[in-house]
Amino acid sequence: MRLTLKELRRLSPQTADRVERDIEKRAGDRERRVKASAERGHSVGGEGSYLEAAFDQQLRATFGREPHPAFRWCTEFRFALPRLYRFDFAWPNLLIAVELEGGIWNGGRHTQARGFIEDARKYNLAAEMGWTVLRYPGTLVNSGEAVSQTEQMLRTALRKLQDDPKP
């Protein structure tokens, strides 16, 4: 049974006050998260986990410090406003994103049920919007396989875009 705040206030004013404060706090927390995410949302280059730093360094080695405009990447790119979903690395003009999946050996977020379900929602929404999402665990980043495959995907997508600019 669900009660409105008004009905709860009649039954227990103290509980209603506590619930109201909690609602306000959560709204404020969400506003702060959205604002912080928006500030990070379209940064070029990147700071973050060790894995993200390693991949960023590999991208810079592959494409140079000033890459061709088509190969410039964004980090922490918000792709589904107003959702808080972000890609670790993204090339919005090519609709290609890279997600680095850390913590797979030590029970990290991506291997826990709730994290896995949220990842599935995020990746399915991205696919629905036309994004190609490449997912890499640390092993593939460290071996260079991730940056190699990403480069190949980007070059293929750019060729397709140049051949047929209207998909």
Give an account of the 3D structure.
- By secondary structure, this protein is of the alpha+beta class.
- The protein folds into 2 domains: 5-35, no CATH class; 42-163, 3-Layer(aba) Sandwich (Endonuclease, Chain A).
- The chain contains 6 helices and 5 strands; from the N terminus they run H-H-E-H-E-E-E-H-E-H-H.
- The chain has helices at residues 5-11, 13-40, 50-63, 113-128, 138-143, 145-163, and strands spanning 43-44, 74-78, 86-91, 96-101, 132-137.
- Strands 1-2-3-4-5 form a 5-stranded mixed β-sheet, sandwiched between helices.
- Strand 3 (86-91) and strand 4 (96-101) form a beta hairpin.
- The longest helix is centred in the N-terminal third of the chain and has 28 residues, at 13-40.
- The model is unreliable at 40-47 (pLDDT under 50).
